[in-house]
Amino acid sequence: MRSWASNTSASTTSSTRHRTRVGHDESFSSTRQRWGLLHALLGSAMNRLERCFGLHVYRVRARPLVTAPSLAPLPIGWTVRQVRHSELVRLSDDESLGLSLKFVDDPISAKATMTAVFEGERIVSYAFATLGGAPHGDGIWVHCEAPFRYSFKSYTRPSHRGLRLSTYTSLCSDVLFMRLGCTQAISYTNICNFASIRTEASKGNRYIGIAGHLSIGRLHLTFRSPGCRRAGFRFFTPIRQERYALDKFA
Prior knowledge:
Blueprint (H helix, E strand, L loop, with lengths): L2 E3 L22 H8 L1 H17 L1 E10 L13 E6 L1 H7 L9 H5 L1 H5 L1 E7 L2 E9 L2 E5 L2 E4 L4 E9 L8 H14 L5 E7 L3 H9 L3 E11 L2 E6 L1 H6 L2 E3 L4 H8 L2
Helix pairs in contact: 1-2
């Protein structure tokens, strides 16, 4: 079980949560001022399509896994490491982490890899990653194929946001999944999350394509571009989700 510790201190700041969707949560005028007219129009249009017709569209991207992470040191007494499933039962008692016992006992969680940043003995940031499939939400799942790994749940305490702790959990996960033969990490972002799209582009993430789903009542229609098809990435609605989970991770 690998652990990285550090020898320096860092200031603690707060920031807007990484997944904030600009164009959805900001007003048209503020989005236009920050990102320009075309982005503001796109955000406004997609907001209406999502609200009225249940249309969700995502940019899918990939990056190579990193075998020898080069990171700024964490504060003294902080570490980043893999969290064993046996530890999750204890963590489920901490409601602030959003790890319910139901989630911990789920076959997906049991087979997934969890990496976390610890401040002493206290988790301040974590992420789950897996091979194959994982729930996306509202009965829709995400599926990816080798050589990709997919992160499906992450969280950083509000008091510790702005420290880029997700970078530490992600790169720790890279090392673990490289041992399983993975070479790429795949992820997706709402097409109106302009801040995340710009950040990911600056990190050298490779654009794969577009994928999404259209929800009409209980009916879910999924779609993907040729690039996502070639990468083996898709949204889907399994007929029997529990059976899929058990079979996929047996």
